[in-house]
Amino acid sequence: MELEFIYKRHSVRKFSDEPVPETKIRDIIKAATYAPSGKNQQNWHFVVITDKAKIAEIARIVEAKNAELSTYMKDEAKIKAFKGSVGYHTVFKGAPVLVLAYAGPYDTVSDTLLAEGIISREEAMKFARPNPGLQNIAAAMENLLLAAANLGYGTCWMVGPTYAATEISDYIGFAKAGYYLAAMTPLGVPAAATTAATPRKPVEEVLTIIG
After folding, report:
1. Where are the domains of the chain?
2. Is the pTM here over 0.85, yes or no?
3. Can you name the residues that pair with 85 across neighbouring β-strands?
4. What's the rounded Cα separation, in Å, for the pair 13 and 91?
5. DSSP string, 65-107
6. pLDDT on residue 192
7. CATH class held by domain 4-206
8. Residues contacting residue 70 through CB under 8 Å, at least 6 positions apart
């Protein structure tokens, strides 16, 4: 199948202890940087953690932030659901590598029009909805996941843990002007010999062709 490399990617949440060579990590990150980027801004930065103790501490930070945020909630059902999500938000703790994807500044037409007082903040939000700066990071993440899968490694695109973005960045000591933690993924050899793909909607359900 010509597109087989696409279908190799699955969300992996259990990993073996086998380390990932630095050469492979660099190859995967390089593939990420070849993603399309609006105005060629390439407003991404990747931080790779390979120290297991540090990865475990980042998981603990997410757990602590989850517990803290749950105390501000009022709806019992939402509190239960949010607390229950922490296990999914820390699946990276069993991986030999954790990749943090940071998004940097990206000026849009809405920023310009708002700054010059031409449109209201509400109108600016409508212009900003596509968020091309963040789409750049998403494109890079998809390249990263596909490259990793093609090399035999598992990943899991994660955004949930970013509610602890400030605490995570403070802990690892990463600071770059205007950059914030947008996504992350564990990286490693899948623990299971095979991983199953989750069901997908039929193409007919999500496709409209206008001739």
Report:
1. 4-206
2. yes
3. none
4. 6
5. HHHHHHTT---HHHHHHHHHTHHHHTGGGGSSEEEEEEE----
6. 75
7. alpha beta
8. 79, 82, 83
